[in-house]
Amino acid sequence: MVLLCSFSANATSHSTNTTESYAFNDIQRVRIDFTMPNGYVRHLLLAFTPNNAATDGVDYGYDALNIDNFPDDLNWMIEHQRYVIQGVGAFNDTKQYPLGMFITNPGEIAIALDTLENFDTDINVFLYDALHNTYTLLNEIDFQETVTAGTHLDRYFIAFKNNTNGSIINQATTLLSIEDMATQETSISFLRQSKEIYIYSNQNIDKLEVYNLLGKRIFSQEGIHLKTLRLPSHFTNEKYGIVRVYTQQSATNKKLILN
Q1: Host H or E run for residue 169
Q2: Helical H segments across the chain, by residue range
Q3: Could you read off the pLDDT of 234-243 as tens digits, one per residue?
Q4: pTM here?
């Protein structure tokens, strides 16, 4: 059970046992956040044991079952069961780890990389969408999609390289694709690497507002008169926000992860 406690986000105690302390520091962690259509966030953890103490299957003391009953959720799928923590063996960038998405309320969701821990060198973390054969580089941008109600299995995976010769979606391709969509009036996204709100419209942007999830306005700018805008998010410590963009023709809202 020592390793399971070591995986948890709130563990603060330190073992006096040298072996256990080494194991804690040696575990490599990938923390993933799933934003539900209602704005709530599910935290997931994928933990790598360099000594292969855990496997890709169910391992007592390393994996944590989902005991919640959220109407919308994202979980690791291990042997057809739902987990919020998955402990596996040593890091291998060719492996992919399946996710199950369970949606009662259709709407917009986001999957984001929260943090990486104890990796000596940077690694790429992708959200692989098997339906479209796309790899979203979570190090740079969040995966965002409007989903329908239902159980979505065998579609979403956390991956570390392009194993299927699929399309890579990163910050650069996102900027290009947004600006190429002349028929789309206004597009709003968050650039994780530069921590900027990126807005593109085929009309001049007149006004921009940002609200927190309680409805309090935390940023406002008028008289912009540009079609493209990059706004650094350092004006707030809020993790989530609602961005509202006004043009002469319309107003567009989008919920984003801001930090």
Answers
A1: strand 167-169
A2: 2-7, 18-26, 171-180
A3: 998 888 888 9
A4: 0.70
Q: Which domains does the chain have, with CATH numbers?
A: 2-169 (no CATH), 171-257 (2.60.40.3080)
CA distances from 175 to 92, 138, 171, 182, 190 (A): 30, 15, 6, 13, 11
Q: Give the pLDDT of residue 25.
A: 67
**Dist. CA 67–CA 39, nearest whole Å:** 20
Cβ–Cβ under 8 Å, residues 225 and 245: no
Residues 20 and 11: their CA atoms lie apart, in Å, by 14
What's the CA gap between 143 and 126, in Å, rounded?
9
Nearest Cα to Cα of residue 200 among 176, 221, 222, 216: 176
* Residue 109, H or E segment: strand 107-117
Q: How many residues does the chain have?
A: 259
